[in-house]
């Protein structure tokens, strides 16, 4: 058996496992994660408290610097400005789930690509099903990548405003922005968990219902339709 055939067999075995057990189990796991207390919307007050702690630390350092008589330039390199610890905890739990699903979806896409038969005239409905499924998987993959960008964007946006706060601590709108940004990120992370769960459900449902057409595209009658 050559390396190409070995690779194809390995991808096919992995794809079968993903559809057979990974996605159903991951759906349950993510649904359970969404129900956990940490992601409950009633805990938004804990997000606010964590925001206030990080901002209080910033203001205390500013006050200490003034009392010690240090210049802003001499203090600048010594400061470590805190982030929202509650948000960090949720992000650290969610990032591995995004990466795991990205890898799973990528494997499924490669699996279907390897199953696409050579181009022939007629009896192409099964191939159309494969292509439609590939399109759906690509959409899920793009959504997962967008989730990663959203998380990174939150930290960048927050850092920019914190930087402005260190220069202009009297501007209360900067403080309010940080509070609102943290709350928005908390809600966004909760929605992200729901989206990951729903993606697992939709991917598993789509492929399970069309597994015969995906695996044997030339053996299907043209009168069938994709679910």
From TrEMBL:
<dbReference type="InterPro" id="IPR036997">
    <property type="entry name" value="PA28_C_sf"/>
</dbReference>
<dbReference type="InterPro" id="IPR036996">
    <property type="entry name" value="PA28_N_sf"/>
</dbReference>
<dbReference type="Pfam" id="PF02251">
    <property type="entry name" value="PA28_N"/>
</dbReference>
<dbReference type="Pfam" id="PF02252">
    <property type="entry name" value="PA28_C"/>
</dbReference>
<comment type="similarity">
    <text>Belongs to the PA28 family.</text>
</comment>
<dbReference type="InterPro" id="IPR003186">
    <property type="entry name" value="PA28_C"/>
</dbReference>
<feature type="domain" description="Proteasome activator PA28 C-terminal">
    <location>
        <begin position="82"/>
        <end position="221"/>
    </location>
</feature>
<keyword id="KW-0647">Proteasome</keyword>
<dbReference type="InterPro" id="IPR003185">
    <property type="entry name" value="Proteasome_activ_PA28_N"/>
</dbReference>
<dbReference type="InterPro" id="IPR036252">
    <property type="entry name" value="Proteasome_activ_sf"/>
</dbReference>
<feature type="domain" description="Proteasome activator PA28 N-terminal">
    <location>
        <begin position="5"/>
        <end position="44"/>
    </location>
</feature>
<protein>
    <recommendedName>
        <fullName>Proteasome activator complex subunit 3</fullName>
    </recommendedName>
</protein>
<dbReference type="InterPro" id="IPR009077">
    <property type="entry name" value="Proteasome_activ_PA28"/>
</dbReference>
């Amino acid at each position: 058996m050559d390396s190409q055939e070995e690779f194809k067999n390995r991808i096919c075995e992995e794809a079968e496992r993903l559809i057979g057990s990974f996605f159903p189990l991951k759906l349950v796991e993510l649904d359970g994660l969404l129900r956990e207390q940490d992601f409950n919307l009633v805990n938004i007050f804990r997000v606010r408290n964590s925001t206030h702690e990080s901002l209080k630390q910033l203001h205390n350092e500013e006050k200490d610097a003034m009392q010690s008589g240090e210049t802003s330039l001499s203090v600048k390199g010594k400061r470590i400005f805190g982030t929202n610890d509650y948000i960090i905890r949720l992000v650290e739990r969610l990032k591995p789930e995004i990466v795991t699903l990205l890898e799973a979806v990528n494997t499924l896409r490669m699996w279907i690509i390897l199953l696409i038969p050579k181009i022939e005239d007629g009896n192409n409905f099964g191939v159309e099903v494969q292509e439609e499924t590939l399109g759906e998987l690509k959409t899920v993959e793009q959504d997962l990548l967008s989730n990663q960008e959203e998380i990174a964007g939150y930290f960048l946006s927050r850092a920019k405003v914190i930087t402005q706060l260190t220069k202009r601590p009297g501007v209360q709108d900067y403080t309010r922005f940080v509070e609102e940004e943290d709350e928005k990120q908390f809600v966004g992370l909760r929605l992200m968990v729901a989206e990951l769960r729903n993606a697992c459900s939709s991917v598993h449902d789509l492929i399970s219902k069309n597994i015969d057409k995906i695996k044997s595209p030339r053996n299907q009658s043209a009168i069938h339709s994709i679910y």
